[in-house]
Amino acid sequence: MKKAALALGLVAALPLLWSCIGGWGFVHDQPLAGPYRLVAVDAREDMGVCRSLEGGNCSGDGLPDRTVFAAGANDRYLVIARHPSVFGEPLNKAVTEYYVVERSADESQPGSRPTVQGPFDQPEFDDKARELALPGFTIVFDDLR
């Protein structure tokens, strides 16, 4: 009887323990445009872009991941700036990459895949912004910038 009560207590405490060590949910989850979201799983340095799918899943689909610090959108494009980083290594803010994601009418469909251009450096991105009339960065995470 004592073993059963102990096991039941451990099972009941497991969700609390798991949430304390970052096992469930996102530390950041913010809509960007359409099905696109800015999410960070365990730490803000994990910030990336994903596409919402049915059932609450979020697919990367080749979208920029770790460490997105700025994004913007209009009805045709997403713009994303990030400091490329490797899990377990310190964030290096000296390097910035820019991406352009072309939006489509079927972007919410599970079988579609977004067209991602980049990475671009600053001058290349500035040229692309003029050429395509890209939106500005409306979401900026100063702590990751």
Contiguous helical run count: 2
The CA-CA distance between the termini, in Å, is 56 Å
Structural class: alpha+beta
Q: Residue share in helices?
A: 10-25%
Order of strands, widest sheet:
8-7-6-5-9
N to C succession of SSEs: HEEEEEEEEHE
CA-based gyration radius:
19 Å
Write a concise keyword list for the protein shown above.
alpha+beta; 145 residues
Explain what you see.
The longest helix has 19 residues, at 2-20. The chain is of the alpha+beta class. It is globular. It is 21% helix and 30% strand. It is built from 2 helices and 9 strands; from the N terminus they run αββββββββαβ. It has helices at residues 2-20, 122-132, and strands at residues 28-33, 36-40, 48-52, 58-59, 68-73, 77-82, 97-102, 115-120, 139-140. The strands form 2 sheets. A 5-stranded antiparallel beta sheet has the order 8-7-6-5-9. Strands 1-2-3-4 form a 4-stranded antiparallel beta sheet, with no helix packed on it.
